[in-house]
Q: What sequence folds into this?
């Protein structure tokens, strides 16, 4: 049986909501999901597995209908999905009474249930979240009822608050494949017969690396898995080193060069390191105009000549402040070093204002 395993799609989410491009990313998350359905329509598989968090929050009825319409366009593919912790079936959820298209199996029970699909020779096991947290190890003791067919467990969890998972028990289970969601990093354990698909699109600067889905083929005797990159954009964390003689224009050119080499389509977090001219302030707005910018972390150190500053300011508060740290010599701690740098800058700014 050929399948695609995805999850953590988070429809309705707008990453980096304070950024100008937040709505663009929200639209792209929907667009990537639609693109996956279109691909399945053109190259059908037997089953599409969605291992929770199809939506980032409680879906509107209109949104469920739109998703169900997409599912109806791949009528030759069985769609199996569950609600995860983000779109849990809470009171008033439109998931509860919705009647899905004929090719959709919604694992909407609170407890793990078995659904047989005779035309595929497959039994699927799974459930949905009814609360945002489930701390019980629900998957540890699920037993296969009919070993003669292909058995698939669809689950969502893997941390302390969301169904802790024992990988060793998975490896010894009778399931032919365990399709997992919740952890956004893809993680394939073919020998253990389980995998996390990861998120279809990255939703946070922490979601670095390639994102996509798992394409697989399973029988009662074998399992073949392949990770397929599919996201429109990836988050990339890059370090830019500067020297005291680096100016703002040169820094901008360095960032532009990084983006040129790694791709304009991606979303960037830059960490600026090194010693910088004390009079140079990094212009974050200017850098934001170069690319999709998630964050800039300034880890630079002002390159003050503290001994010269002391000599020139012996008779004022700046000189006394600097001298207090210079007396510590090599015993100065990292925290004290930062206090010296930040305090010096603040005092210099105050003196300039006068």
A:
């Amino acid at each position: 049986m050929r399948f695609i395993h995805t999850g953590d799609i988070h429809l309705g989410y707008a990453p980096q909501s304070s950024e100008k491009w937040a709505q663009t990313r929200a639209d792209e998350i929907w667009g990537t999901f639609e693109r996956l359905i279109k691909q399945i329509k053109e190259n059908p598989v037997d089953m599409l597995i969605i291992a929770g968090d199809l939506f980032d929050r409680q879906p509107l009825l209109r949104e469920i209908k739109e998703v169900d319409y997409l599912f109806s366009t791949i009528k030759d593919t069985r769609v199996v999905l569950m609600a995860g912790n983000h779109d849990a079936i809470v009171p008033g959820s439109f998931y509860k009474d919705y009647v899905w298209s004929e090719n959709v199996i919604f694992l909407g029970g609170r407890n793990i249930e078995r659904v047989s699909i005779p035309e595929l020779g497959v039994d699927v096991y799974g459930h949905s979240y009814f609360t945002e947290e489930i701390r019980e190890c629900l998957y540890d003791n699920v037993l296969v009822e009919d070993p003669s067919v292909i058995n698939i467990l669809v689950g969502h969890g893997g941390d302390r608050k969301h169904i802790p998972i024992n990988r060793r028990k998975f490896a010894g289970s009778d399931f032919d494949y365990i399709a997992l969601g919740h952890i956004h990093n893809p993680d394939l354990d073919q020998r253990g017969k389980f995998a996390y698909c990861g998120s279809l699109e990255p939703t946070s600067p922490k979601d670095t690396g390639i994102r996509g889905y798992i394409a697989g083929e399973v029988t009662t005797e074998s399992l073949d898995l392949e990770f397929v990159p599919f996201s429109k954009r990836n988050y990339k964390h890059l370090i830019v080193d500067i020297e005291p003689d680096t100016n703002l224009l040169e820094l901008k050119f360095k960032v532009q060069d990084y983006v040129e080499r790694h791709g304009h389509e991606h979303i960037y977090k830059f960490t600026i390191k090194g010693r910088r001219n004390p009079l140079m302030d990094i212009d974050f707005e200017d850098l934001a105009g170069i690319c999709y910018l998630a964050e800039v972390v300034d880890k630079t150190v002002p390159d003050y000549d503290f001994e010269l500053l002391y000599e020139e300011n012996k008779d004022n508060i700046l000189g006394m402040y600097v001298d207090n740290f210079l007396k510590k010599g090599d015993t100065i701690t990292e925290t004290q070093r930062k206090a010296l740098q930040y305090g010096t800058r603040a005092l210099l700014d105050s003196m300039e204002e006068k």
Observations:
- The mean pLDDT is 92.
- Residues 2-229 form a domain with the Purple Acid Phosphatase; chain A, domain 2 fold (CATH 3.60.21.10).
- Residues 168 and 192 are 8 Å apart (CA to CA).
